[in-house]
Amino acid sequence: MTKDECKQRVIDIIADIAPDEDLSNLKSDVKLRDQLQIDSMDFLDIVMELRKRHGLEVPEADYGQLASLDSSAEYLTPKFNALAAKR
Amino acid sequence: MQTARIVITGVGLTAPNGNSLAEFRQNLLNGVSGVEHKEVRYMGIQPAGVCHYDPLKYQKKKELRVGTRAGSISIYCAREALADSGLDFGARPTDRVGIYIGCTEHGNVETENEVFAISKFGYDTKFWSHYHNPRTVANNPAGEISLNLGITGPAYTIGAACAAGNLGLIHAAQMLRLGEVDCALGGGVSESIHTFGIFAGFRSQGALAAHPDPKKASRPFDKSRNGIVVSEGGCLYVLERLEDAQTRGAKIYGEIGGYCVNSDASDYVLPNPTRQADCVRRAIAHAGLQPRDIHIVNTHATATPQGDIQECEAIRAVFGEGCPDTYINNTKSFIGHCMGAAGALELAGNLPAFDDRVVHPTINVDELDPACALPGLVLNQPKRVGRVDAILNNSFGMLGINSTLIVKRFVP
Hints:
Chain A has helices spanning 3-17, 32-35, 40-54, 69-86. By secondary structure, chain A is mainly α.
């Protein structure tokens, strides 16, 4: 999986948890919270959806890694790839 | 004790057969049922009263995703009621606005959904939603209104089984009289059709309606009635002290006349006609009226074989033969049992009678059960009457809670 593919997975999740938001101009390097109306419960949704849809666990200590699309991709892409290698 | 006069200045509702008072009333006068077939988890197709309001009229998609159906119904009704009342809080503080929502139950829908959801993950509770607690706390429907409208006054629910709709109104009137608030949103809501448990529970009791035609399934007083049609719905009223309503030139639907809430203290589920009659008598006395002064009695009757007979026994004991101008009807025959919303919705369906002097009927009575024959029962067709000055609304619930609310024609 590439980082761009990983970002798209995160965007797909955000589209469901923030359905009123326009995601077409989302900036990868800007914190999601600074460009979207999302709160801590929404971040828990991202964690839950990664778990449900992709079987991927994000420990609480690493929640900060999901701050932006870039940091999410940096953190999640190796995890997705490791998971794929196991399957 | 001198008490302030409390009046109704706004109505907002969603019923299975209407999303405004005008639409609801028109369908009650035209014999239009709102009961339809609905797929219920684990139970297949059941007759149910389903509301078809537009949730996006007052909520964002995210609010709908995070909140509950009961919260959404509450928001719709509250917004409609406030718009109807003409009240505009603008930038004024709203800490003197109270929100009092009657609920039969709350939280079952979300809990059932979560258990079902984790069943897809081997019942691993790490898949349990972090929204479960805010969705299932008992104050959820009232709290969602306060969030949506930015109302900072007291907002909570009143658990009173199927008497809850009346209780929301009664409590609102009490808080206004105590001076706790200056404006109150009171009534009841129900999301019950989204929990299989309530259907299954009634079926296990032998009290769930069944009929090939869903529109014929809810048939109080009919000889072949066989149980309750579970419905969702909501109805909230804006209540104010009379002087406040008059100061702002508000439209007044009616005045809270009197009420009573009591308990059977006799059984978990079986009604008690003696206590029901006590409740009705005390409400009439509280309103300073006599039974013959009541022109419409809206019954609670849910179409269970025994419950209808017992309520008729209570009504017979209070009104007897000496009340020639008292007419009796039932709204559940159109919309099923809207549980926590029932009392509030059923009152709303009758309020326009103060102006049009028409009593909506009880439909689906093909053969009247002789044990339910009451003088003044309005069957199948609406009835124009001489005058409507007082409407008495009965709502009873499990664990033996009884409520009677009387609304009087407003006379300055």
